[in-house]
Amino acid sequence: MLQRPEHQVAGHEAGSGTLGPLIDGSGHFFKPLNPSDERGAHELAFYTSFFSDPRVPHSIRSSFFPSFGGTRVLPIPDAPDLLLPHLVLENLLHGYSNPCVMDVKIGARTWYPSASEKYYAKCLKKDRDSTSALLGFRISGLQVHHESGRWKPHRDKVRKYTVTDVRQSLRQFISKNPDETPPDCALASSVYGGSNGILAQLLELKSWFEDQTLFHFYSASLLIAYDKGGKAPRLKLIDFAHVMEGEGIIDHNFLGGLCSLIKCVSEILADAETAAGPTDPQVLETTADLEAAAGPAEPKVVVGLTENGIH
Amino acid sequence: MLQRPEHQVAGHEAGSGTLGPLIDGSGHFFKPLNPSDERGAHELAFYTSFFSDPRVPHSIRSSFFPSFGGTRVLPIPDAPDLLLPHLVLENLLHGYSNPCVMDVKIGARTWYPSASEKYYAKCLKKDRDSTSALLGFRISGLQVHHESGRWKPHRDKVRKYTVTDVRQSLRQFISKNPDETPPDCALASSVYGGSNGILAQLLELKSWFEDQTLFHFYSASLLIAYDKGGKAPRLKLIDFAHVMEGEGIIDHNFLGGLCSLIKCVSEILADAETAAGPTDPQVLETTADLEAAAGPAEPKVVVGLTENGIH
C-alpha cells in the first residue's frame, strides 16, 4: 500500500539509497525520521509542541498545517528489512487527481541566530544566490497539469530562478498553457482570487504572523496546491526542521517574505481581472472555464487589499 | 544663528574635526554633504527622487518624512573659512522645549544586496551583535526628559542593548521616572496610544510599506519624539544614505522590522491599559497628567489591533 508520492516537487525523494517520504491510500504522508540527522527529531518536537499548544488558534492549526498523527515505524522501500520511525502527517494532495503544486520557501534568510558558522554560511550563500534575499522568498519546485500533460521544470533550473522567473512562474502556475508567452493566467481568479482563494488564505495567515510570537519558521515552505476539481485551493505550511522558539518576538523574517508573496499574487490577480474586464462582458472569452475563472471580483478581498494599500 | 542640535541622540555630531548637522532658529536642519563620502550624494539623490515622485502619496510624504528644501552652502563651525553644501531638511524637534527622542534603526539587515563584501560583512556583524537580526530593529539612541532632568544612556551602552534592554527602553521612554523599576509607563496611552499616537502612526506607515515597491530603506531609522506640551507625538523616517530602488519588490526587510516594533509597542500599551484599568476609575492615580495618560482606550486603534491579531 505504501508508495512514493507522485507529485512531490521539492525535498528529498525516497529511493536509490536516499530516505524520502511515503504515502498510503488513506491520506497519510509518512516522513522518515533519520536517526543520524537531528532535523527529524527537531521536526517531531515542533509538531508535538505545536499541536499541544493552546495558544495556537484551532482555525490556524486546521487551515494552514498538515494534521499530525504521531510517529509510526515503517520498512524502508529499498531496504525492507530496515525499519525506521516516520512522522505520520496528512497527505496534502490526497483527493487530487492532477494536482498543480508549488513549494515556496518563505523568508529572506533561512539561517537562524543560533546556527553554527558552517550552516549559517551555507544558508547565507543560498539566500543571496537565490531570490530569497531580494524577494523575501524563493520557489523550491512546482508542477502544473494542463491539457496536454504535466509541466515540471527541473530542480536545477528552479534553483537558478531570478526574480523575473519567479514572477513568471507564479503566472504559469495558474495558466491553462504554462508554455504560452505571456502565460494566459486563465485560472488567476479561481485559484488566487475569491473568498476561499490563495490570496484570502495568505492574508489570514499574515494576520496570525503579525501577532504570534511562539515560533520562528526558518526555512519552512508554503505548499500551494489546486486541481481542476473545483475544490478550494490549499495553502499549507510544511517543513519544520528549523523552527525555533519565538521567545516573545514576532517572526519578522517569515512575515516580511509572506507580505512580499502577497504583493506578487495581488498584482497578478489585479492584472488578470483588468485583462478579463469583469465589468465588461464583451472582453470575456466564451468558454465556461474562462468565465468562471475570471468571474466577478470578490468584494471581501478587494476591501482587504484597499485597506492594506494606499494608491 | 547656526548651532549644533542639542537633542541629537544618534549619528555624527558636529565639532572636533567631525562633520555633523546644524540647526537654525526657524526650524531648519542642515546635514553636511561630505564630498569625500558618497553617502551624502546618495541621500540627496533620494530626497530629490522621493519628493518629486508622484507615486508617493502626499499624506505619506508629509506625515512620515522631514520636509526637504534642497541644498545650501554653509560654513563649517570648526573651520568657518571652509564652505560645504548641506541638505536643507526640517528640524523634527523644532518647537519642542524638552523633547523625549528615540532613534530606532529598522530592519533585521542593514546591508543591501549590491553592497561590497567589506560593507556587507561590517553590517552583518553589527546586525548579529545588536538586536537587529533577532528583533528586526535596534535602538540607536534615546533621551527622556523627566522632572529631575534628562536621562540619556551613553551610546556605548545603547550599542550593547539586548532584546530585554530594548523592551525596557521602550517602556522607560514613556515613563515619568525612567529610572524606576519597573518603569511606570505613565505616558503610554498619551504617547503610544490614541488616534494620533505612535501606534496609530506606525500602523499607517505599515499600510504603505505593504504596498510600496519604489524604495528599500536599508539602515534607515524611525525618529520617535514627543514632549509634554500636548502636541501629537511625531514619527518620522530619517537617514536615507542607503536607500535603494525597490524594483517592484516590497521592502520586506523594513516591513518585518516595523511589524516587530508595532508588536512591542502594542504589548506595552495593552499592559499599561490593563494596569491603569480604564473601566475602573478607582485604580487611577489622581494627578491630571496620569489620568490624561491612561485615559480611555481609543476604539479606532483597538479595532485595528483586533483585526491584525487572532487571540
UniProtKB/TrEMBL annotation, chains A, B:
Class of enzymatic activity (EC top level): transferase
UniProt-listed Enzyme Commission number(s): 2.7.1.140, 2.7.1.151
GO biological process: inositol phosphate biosynthetic process
Catalytic activity: 1D-myo-inositol 1,4,5-trisphosphate + 2 ATP = 1D-myo-inositol 1,3,4,5,6-pentakisphosphate + 2 ADP + 2 H(+); 1D-myo-inositol 1,3,4,6-tetrakisphosphate + ATP = 1D-myo-inositol 1,3,4,5,6-pentakisphosphate + ADP + H(+)
Family of this protein: Belongs to the inositol phosphokinase (IPK) family.
Keyword Nucleotide-binding part of the UniProt annotation: yes
GO cellular component: a single term: nucleus
GO function terms (MF aspect): ATP binding; inositol tetrakisphosphate kinase activity; inositol-1,4,5-trisphosphate 3-kinase activity
UniProt-listed InterPro entries: IPK, IPK_sf
PANTHER family associated with the record: INOSITOL POLYPHOSPHATE KINASE, INOSITOL POLYPHOSPHATE MULTIKINASE
Function field: Inositol phosphate kinase with a broad substrate specificity.
Keywords: ATP-binding, Kinase, Nucleotide-binding, Transferase
Protein name: Inositol polyphosphate multikinase
Highest taxon listed in the record's lineage: Eukaryota
A Pfam family reported for this protein in Swiss-Prot or TrEMBL: IPK
Protein source organism: Rhynchospora pubera
